[in-house]
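quick q for whoever's on today - can somebody do inverse folding on this one?? i tried earlier but teh output was garbage lol. tokens:
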């Protein structure tokens, strides 16, 4: 499934400049390339996938400033004709009207089914472009070039694409796998530290959900990852991609196991919703605090050693991520508003809330038996007000 050089998740990696993780999905399989300097050489990775030397780049106004010229030069160097489309940076662009404009532009560029659209950016660009590709001419190919740590380890892999609806985030979308993912460690250098930390939370998620050895490694090396030491960050990204690729290969459409990737999300989304899905609380920060709560709640139910919950909390806090309610937004949350937001989560099934809970660090499971009555005193004890 993968051809990583890394032998054991707990060992210091013998990272090479470049690694490949395969997402094994039969005819829809694809590679995730991870390493330094990939964007500058993107032409040589992309050219073999194109039926003709022509492509289009979709990006946002911020990413364009930092990275568009590099990609354009790489395509020029490989003799690939290209045009670029810029959407305004930010979550607000992930909507139906932006999708329509993008599809019109792609059609005006005469993009055909077998052409490959390039999505250069973070989660918003990947999700919007991927969804446009999924519906354009009933399905067009695309390549993800994620420029945030969060997109490199999560949203660019696995084929979930979507735009937001007025009733909630990511409610209009499709599963549509890319043909290639290029995760260049160098593009991370232009990220604000806060955004880097938020992406790191999703890396910790893979250790916490199924790989204690990787969690041990992160405790020892998280600082180097956040300092963008190339070997350390490439190893952390590759290990995360390997974990996600394995789950997606077994359960592409989230009929079961893929839901584990939502560790921290039911709690986290409630805080994101109340704080307005913006600067007050980034998605990765919400996932970090959501994981803290998922482990603390598991300990509260007597299913997980409180020391494991404490270890997770301590590591996230040491990395500058929110690990208590006081560190989330303005720190003031009503228990009823939180429970209401959790009840509206898109993971609600037959009216029941769905949580990913833990037996231990690296050992998690899907729980459909959590009631609002059980959560109420727990949330109060964590700092919510009555
Ligand atoms: N971000 C969770 C998933 O891709 O399933």
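ok took a stab at it. sequence:
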């Amino acid at each position: 499934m993968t051809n990583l050089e890394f032998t054991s998740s707990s060992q210091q990696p013998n990272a090479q400049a470049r690694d490949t993780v395969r997402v094994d999905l039969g005819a829809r399989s694809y590679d995730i390339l991870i390493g330094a300097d990939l964007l500058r050489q993107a032409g040589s990775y992309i050219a073999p996938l194109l039926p003709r030397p022509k492509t289009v780049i979709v990006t946002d106004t911020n990413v364009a400033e930092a990275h568009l010229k590099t990609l354009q030069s790489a395509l020029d160097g490989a003799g690939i004709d290209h045009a670029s489309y810029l959407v305004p940076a930010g979550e607000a662009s992930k909507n139906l009207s932006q999708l329509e404009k993008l599809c019109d532009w792609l059609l005006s560029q005469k993009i055909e089914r077998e052409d490959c659209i390039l999505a250069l950016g973070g989660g918003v660009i990947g999700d919007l472009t991927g969804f446009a590709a999924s519906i354009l001419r009933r399905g067009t190919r695309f390549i993800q070039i994620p420029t945030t740590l969060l997109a490199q380890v999560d949203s660019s892999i696995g084929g979930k694409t979507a735009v937001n609806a007025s009733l909630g985030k990511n409610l209009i979308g499709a599963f549509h796998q890319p043909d290639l993912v290029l995760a260049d460690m160098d593009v991370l250098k232009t990220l604000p530290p806060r955004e880097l930390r938020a992406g790191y939370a999703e890396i910790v998620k893979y250790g916490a959900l199924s790989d204690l050895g990787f969690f041990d490694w992160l405790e020892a090396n998280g600082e180097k990852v956040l300092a963008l030491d190339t070997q350390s960050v490439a190893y952390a990204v590759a290990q995360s991609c390997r974990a996600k690729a394995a789950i997606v290969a077994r359960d592409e459409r989230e009929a079961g196991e893929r839901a584990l990737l939502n560790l921290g999300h039911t709690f986290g989304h409630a805080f994101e919703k109340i704080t307005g899905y913006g600067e007050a609380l980034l998605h990765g920060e919400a996932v970090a605090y959501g994981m803290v709560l998922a482990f603390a709640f598991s300990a509260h139910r007597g299913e997980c050693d409180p020391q494991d919950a404490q270890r997770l909390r301590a590591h996230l806090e040491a990395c500058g991520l929110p690990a208590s309610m006081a560190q989330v937004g303005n720190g003031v949350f009503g228990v009823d508003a939180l429970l209401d937001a959790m009840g509206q989560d898109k993971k609600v099934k037959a009216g029941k809330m769905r949580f990913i809970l833990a037996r231990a660090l690296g050992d998690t499971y899907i729980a459909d038996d959590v009631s609002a009555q059980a959560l109420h005193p727990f949330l109060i004890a964590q700092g919510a007000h009555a």
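fwiw The chain is about 45% helix and 20% strand. also Residues 263-386 form a domain with the Dehydroquinate synthase-like, alpha domain fold (CATH 1.20.1090.10). so keep that in mind when u check it
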